Amino acid sequence: MAHDFLAVFSGSLVGFVLGLIGGGGSILAVPLLVYLVGVKSPHVAIGTSAVAVALSAVASLVDHARHHHVKWRCAMVFAAAGTVGAVLGSEFGKQVDGQKLLLLFGVLMITIAALMFLKKSGGGDMEVELNFASAPKLLPYLLAYGAAVGAVSGFFGIGGGFLIVPGLMAATDMPMIYAIGSSLFCVAVFGFTTAGNYALSGLVDWPLVGLFISGGVVGGLAGRYASTSLAKKKQLLSQIFATIVAVVGIYVVARGLPALIG
């Protein structure tokens, strides 16, 4: 009973953060499943979180698409390149010792938190589109960034929203709101790719996925409502979340080092 409650609570927390700042909640999923819910295998936690994150991304994508915040062609090219990277990354990730994987995951969290604090908000080009005229300029960057981000997402079993958003902005100079909306398409594709790879190896806890998603739906609705109410404080919210990511990352590293050394 307590296990089920913690799974639903963890899902609601991840869903809330995703709804609140448009991404990032997925990076908390693996630590929550391992340290709070008590999933013994880091690889099962990664496979399970990948399914849950992908389904949550689809739900959020629908809302962003309704507001025309998705650059579909850019997102599709980025996702296509990222899928190849995600397959390779997730395959390699399964071969790495679970404790080492968690330790590297903690280091990644700390790095991402630092980048969030350093990130400058900019306007971007609202009219950017991938077409025959812009392809020579945009296509190489979309393919390169997509493949790299997909590989990292697959390796660590995360949706990659924190990596996809800056990747899309760097490749196309689109505004953040469009990068967030477009990234959700990529998050879903990467997540399902990674989840499928892990599922084929029996590394997905399907009953846990159901509990996690049920909490995520409720948390996502609450997060989107809070985001609307606090829209003018997005930068502050991002910095607060960066602090949370850094703290959790330090905790994961602190927990992983003794097990690795000892």
Could you outline the blueprint of secondary structure elements for this entry?
Blueprint lengths: L1 H20 L4 H12 L4 H25 L5 H24 L2 H21 L16 H22 L4 H12 L3 H25 L5 H24 L4 H28 L1
Helix pairs in contact: 1-2, 1-3, 1-9, 2-3, 3-8, 3-9, 4-6, 4-8, 5-10, 6-7, 6-8, 7-8
Describe this structure in words.
The chain has 262 residues and is mainly α. The protein has one domain. It has ten helices and no strands. It has helices spanning 2-21, 26-37, 42-66, 72-95, 98-118, 135-156, 161-172, 176-200, 206-229, 234-261. The longest helix has 28 residues, at 234-261. The chain is globular.
Could you give the count of β-strands? 0
Helix content: over 70%
Question: What is the H-and-E element order?
Answer: HHHHHHHHHH
Gyration radius, rounded = 17 Å
**What class, by secondary structure content?**
mainly alpha
List keywords for this structure.
262 residues, globular, mainly alpha, 10 helices, single chain
